[in-house]
UniProtKB/TrEMBL annotation:
InterPro entries: AKR, AKR2D, Aldo/ket_reductase_CS, NAD(P)_OxRdtase_dom_sf, NADP_OxRdtase_dom. It comes from Acrodontium crateriforme. Pathway: Carbohydrate metabolism; D-xylose degradation. The record marks K81 as: Lowers pKa of active site Tyr. The keyword Protein transport does not apply. One of its GO terms (biological process) is D-xylose catabolic process. This is Aldo/keto reductase. Residues 20-303 form the NADP-dependent oxidoreductase domain. Substrate binds at H114. Pfam families: Aldo_ket_red. Belongs to the aldo/keto reductase family.
Amino acid sequence: MALSSPTIKLSNGKEMPLVGFGLWKVTNETCADTVYNAIKTGYRLFDGACDYGNETEAGQGVKRALDEGLVKREDLFIVSKLWNSFHDKEQVKPICKKQLADWGVDYFDLFIIHFPIALKYVAPEVRYPPGFFYEDKKVELSKTSLETTYQAMEELYDEGLIKAIGISNYTGTLLLDVERYARHMPHTLQIEHHPYLVQQDLIDLCKSRNIAVTAYSSFGPQSFLELNLQKAHDAPVLFEHKDIKSIADKHNKTPAQVLLRWATQRGIAVIPKSNNQSRLAQNLDVCSFDLTEEEIKTINAMDRGLRFNNPLNYGVPIPIFA
């Protein structure tokens, strides 16, 4: 029997699974099968993005599951993101429609502004996904404001092309700014969140505004090993951290399950990924045990303000978290 995830209710009443599957770094060759297998395992939320370059394949996995009657479209919660190069008002709807066509669906359950950075438009036929650079490793910014982009997102919401509006990588200051101009407040904020980067003040701000928080990179440096940042900062890989291992042993769970439960027990949604079938199931089964208050405090105390997903780490000279 397939597992399932509890849900959290967004401010517009829509139910969002607390545990989803993240499509970042899932290869094009494996993506369709991975999505299909994840649906069979019990995953219902899939977190994709234009920038991941695998939306067509993800859609093929979804189609296979729908065609076989494993799920109906309304059982799934499909998330995608607006890339930085499409922030100009006139580009938001066309690119959203392209992404919907890539997925083979009529609407996104949640559509997210990926980064609070507006880059100069690159047409999909020139390069897709466009990445951070305009050409020759040069970053060129658009003159479009975040307010303009957000209003274009609200139009998608009003038209039913998206069922919820999300933002990602926004700071508290930017979130307070959204509040000044939004007709519909964001339903979710997606942030890097793990024991080395807890961001409790930002989480508390979201809570006070009834904005659901989704954590990405729940395993910290694990997704960024190629950047060697954990070595540069002398930060042990979290799976090997003595405190995490000791808590995992006590509950007879894996370090990954402990890290995910640390988030979900505090009402924060997670989007781990795995190509391994048994880990797929383990990652989904993270609400069947509870950490003690003391264990949560121990994990919170590991906070070092250590951010891995920073454009500067990729050679992109845009210090958005400065």
